[in-house]
Design brief:
Elements (H helix, E strand, L loop, with lengths): L3 H9 L8 H8 L2 E2 L4 E2 L4 H10 L11 H20 L7 H14 L1 E5 L5 E5 L3 H19 L5 E3 L8 E3 L12 H23 L1
Antiparallel strand pairs: 1-2, 3-4, 5-6
Helix pairs in contact: 1-2, 2-6, 4-5, 5-6
Length: 197
């Protein structure tokens, strides 16, 4: 039987993130801009998505304001992974994530004399978002976070894990978005050259 992580890796396709960062990547990619789909656009969809990853209890209520909070957190995380790809994180994205951390009531819990984890004290969707943000924190601490990037193509912005040795990966898939960007650049140069003559 396929595990949740195996299912996520299959769904993400190429360039899946390791460990718990995979859940963060899947959360960001729950909106597929290229195809115009959103897996968390309604309370029922959000509940199903969070339940599928064991981030929320089956009995937890999910309403429209939860959907708005989840989408805001997702897009703020997308902003951060775009910043990992040469952009700049917006102050609004950072404030959105800080608000989500407060709502989740994230706090450290010691597991042993040498380990501690961030855990949400809030239940429901706030707690689920808190678990995702705790994974972001852990990946920042481990140095993996900088490798989670978003494709810079406006029609894509798919989160991918940069596995290159020197962290120079730019595109989610060079064969798709990278080639589209090259084609646009080529057309633009040739149109400008035509107008110059």
């Amino acid at each position: 039987m396929e595990t949740t992580k195996e299912k996520l890796k299959r769904w993400i396709g190429s360039k899946p993130a390791p460990d718990d960062l995979l859940v963060v990547q899947a959360f960001i990619n729950s909106a597929d801009l290229d195809h115009g789909t959103d897996d968390i656009a309604s309370p029922a969809q959000l509940r199903a998505w969070l339940r599928g990853l064991d981030l929320i209890d089956a009995s937890a209520p999910v309403n429209e304001s939860d959907v708005a909070a989840a989408i805001a957190a997702r897009e703020a995380l997308r902003d951060l992974v775009l910043a990992n790809n040469g952009g700049k994180a917006s102050p609004n994205a950072l404030e959105t994530l800080n608000r989500a951390v407060r709502c989740a009531q994230l706090s450290p819990r010691f597991g042993s004399a040498s380990t501690a984890v961030l855990e949400p004290r809030a239940p429901g969707v706030d707690g689920a978002i808190g678990r995702i943000l705790a994974s972001v924190f852990d990946s920042m601490e481990s140095g993996q976070w900088a490798r989670l990037k978003a494709c810079p193509a406006d029609s894509c912005k798919w989160a991918f894990y940069d596995e290159t040795k020197n962290r120079s990966g730019t595109w989610c898939a060079m064969s798709v978005c990278g080639n589209r960007a090259k084609a646009r650049s080529f057309r633009k140069r040739h149109v400008m050259a035509d107008h110059a003559h």
